[in-house]
Design a protein that fits this description.
Elements: H1 2-22, E1 31-32, E2 38-41, E3 44-46, E4 66-72, E5 82-87, E6 90-96, E7 99-104, H2 106-110, E8 118-123, E9 132-139, E10 150-154, H3 161-166, H4 170-192, H5 201-219, H6 230-256, H7 262-287, H8 297-312, H9 324-352, H10 363-401, H11 411-421, E11 428-435, H12 438-445, H13 447-464, E12 469-475, E13 478-484, H14 491-506, E14 515-521, H15 522-525, H16 529-546
Antiparallel strand pairs: 1-10, 2-3, 2-4, 4-9, 5-8, 5-10, 6-7, 6-9, 11-13, 11-14, 12-13
Helix pairs in contact: 1-4, 4-5, 4-10, 5-6, 5-10, 6-7, 9-10, 12-13, 13-14
């Protein structure tokens, strides 16, 4: 309940954030400097009306291609003193009146390291107004010029994180929600797994939510609110992307366990194994600087397409045999796949439509959120059914091992406990107890009064040995108490308390409660629990013969 309450609070924060994002955030004095620019590509210079709408060539710009962008900075706003440039998988040198004031990525590229995408913050020197600004950009990956650099002129107080904070997107709010919820679900689920196996899906859902939440934060570049290392950000983005399918595949394995057979089951299990090998291999190559994550992106996309085809076509997803929880999660998965297809369509359209930023739309983010919600709804239904089933099993187990009249454990449970005692080496005591006068009571007042007498005696026995031993009704008027080694010294106190309770209960009963008992220790017999019980039983009958009530039984 605490976890659910925290999740709802998190959802409330998420909704408030969305409301805030939907409002106008143009309160800062920043200027998006989109024109005028002169663009030189392959020796040809042009002056596009808008840099965002410009595309140097039809198709992908090859790796290592260069682009020269030139403009004259405005003079009318002398209090601006910073540039904020968003760049995609490219290196960049920035010149102000032929003086280099900033450089990024050439050393990384020459060393074969990954070149990240994101925002670059460049402080302008005093008197920058009216000076000539030049950007020399080199493609670190093919297609880097599909999205042209975006330049914004900022006041001092809007540098870096404050500027990003003013431009938080819906995708970022969704990503933060998924990340925080995922972390909570993983921690809470792992802890809950210690109580029951049906909680295993919760950390898997948390893993899915956390990984894809981090990936979304990286993909939208808003990770720069906390990290300005573009190389690290790019590595983290690709790592989360390659890791994400494992979380979904493990969820399918958990949901389809014992519901699939043959090649479909083995194929499903092989998906996370293959993905894990792929992730581990690419990560080792990335960390060893042998090959970078982006070099395996095509192989990853092929694997993803084949994996989705395998899940869809043979009925691994949305099978007729699925229950309600699986059907709900399957619908969410299908909607998520549709959002990914829509994202790919938008991405490819952006490559032929200048000015469209594929990372600026939240299609996949909404798809992720819908899928996460479907997983949660599915899990709640599954959990409710699992708890009901467990409750029914526990009830049946309780009926199997409980005496219906007195509520004490029965002979079947006693045999189970004896098996456990036979496997331990510590000492224990077994007390055999036989009620006095029950036969005469049944003959005189009927079996109804006899049952009341048995219930009263069982109650006094339970209260007397509470926290000390385990009372058991063996059948009829025969009872037994098992006391472990740590409570052997408390047995006399328990028997005295039992006698006091019997006297109190006898005031409203047809005949007084009384019993004969005998106790034996394992240390006396050094054999099985059954042998200890038989010795205790012999001593009980000895006490019964010596009792003055023996003649009345």
């Amino acid at each position: 309940m605490g976890f659910l309450a925290a999740a709802f609070m998190l959802a409330a924060v998420f909704i408030v954030s969305l409301i805030g994002v939907s409002k106008n955030r143009s309160s800062n004095n920043s200027i998006v400097w989109d024109s005028p620019w002169e663009v030189t590509y392959h020796g040809k210079t042009s002056q596009p009306p808008s840099l965002a709408q410009y595309r140097p060539i039809q198709g992908e710009a090859p790796l290592g291609d260069s682009l020269l962008l030139e403009t004259t900075l405005p003079t009318r706003l002398s209090d601006y003193s910073a540039l904020h440039i968003r760049l995609f998988v490219s290196t960049m040198d920035v010149y102000l009146n032929d003086e280099k004031i900033y450089s990024y990525g050439q050393e990384l590229l020459s060393e074969g390291l990954i070149v990240g995408s994101g925002y670059h913050r460049i402080e302008l020197p005093a008197g920058w107004g009216g000076q000539k600004l030049r950007l020399k950009v080199y493609a670190a990956e093919s297609g880097a010029f599909d999205i042209m650099p975006e330049t914004t002129i900022l006041p001092n107080q809007m540098m870096g994180a404050p500027y990003l904070a003013e431009h938080i997107s819906v995708s970022f709010c969704i990503a933060i929600f998924m990340t925080l919820f995922g972390a909570m679900a993983m921690v809470g689920g792992i802890g809950a797994m210690g109580f029951a196996g049906y909680f295993v899906r919760l950390p898997l859902i948390g893993f899915f939510s956390f990984v894809l939440g981090i990936w979304t934060i990286c993909y939208t570049h808003e990770i720069q609110l906390i990290s300005l290392n573009l190389e690290f950000n790019a590595i983290l983005e690709y790592a989360m992307l390659y890791l994400a399918p494992i979380s979904i595949e493990l969820l399918f394995v958990s949901m389809r366990r014992k519901k699939l057979s043959g090649w479909r089951w083995y194929g499903l299990v092989s998906l996370p194994i293959f993905n894990g090998i792929f992730f581990a291999g690419t990560t080792i190559l990335q960390l060893a600087h042998v090959a970078n994550y982006p070099q395996f992106l095509l192989l990853f996309h092929i694997y993803m397409v084949l994996g989705i085809v395998f899940l869809m076509v043979p009925g691994v997803v949305y099978s007729k045999k699925d229950g309600l929880p699986e059907r709900i999660s399957d619908i969410g998965f299908l909607l998520f796949c549709l959002s990914c297809i829509a994202e790919l369509v938008v991405f490819n359209l952006s490559r032929v439509t200048p000015g469209v930023d594929p990372r600026g739309n939240p299609i996949t983010s909404w798809g992720l959120l819908v899928y996460l919600m479907s997983l949660l709804v599915s899990y709640v239904i599954y959990l409710q059914r699992a708890i009901v089933n467990k409750t029914e099993k526990d009830l049946l187990s309780s009926l199997a091992y409980r005496d219906a009249l007195t509520g004490l454990y029965n002979r079947a449970k006693c045999e189970q406990i004896f098996d456990v005692l036979n496997g331990i080496g510590s000492d224990y005591a077994v007390t055999s107890i036989d009620m006095n006068g029950l036969k005469k009571l049944n003959d005189t007042y009927g079996h109804g009064k006899g049952d009341e007498q048995l219930q009263a005696f069982a109650k006094t026995l339970s209260e007397a040995f509470k926290g000390i031993g385990t009372p058991i009704r063996m059948g009829g008027d025969e009872f037994l108490v098992i006391v472990r080694q740590e409570h052997l010294n408390d047995m006399e106190t328990a028997f005295e308390k039992m006698r006091v309770l019997q006297e109190e209960a006898s005031q409203v009963l047809p005949i007084p409660l009384s019993a004969s008992y005998g106790t034996a220790m394992r240390s006396e017999v050094r054999s099985t629990a059954g042998d200890v019980y038989r010795l205790a039983d012999d001593r009980m009958y000895k006490m019964k013969k010596e009792s003055k009530d023996t003649r009345e039984d």
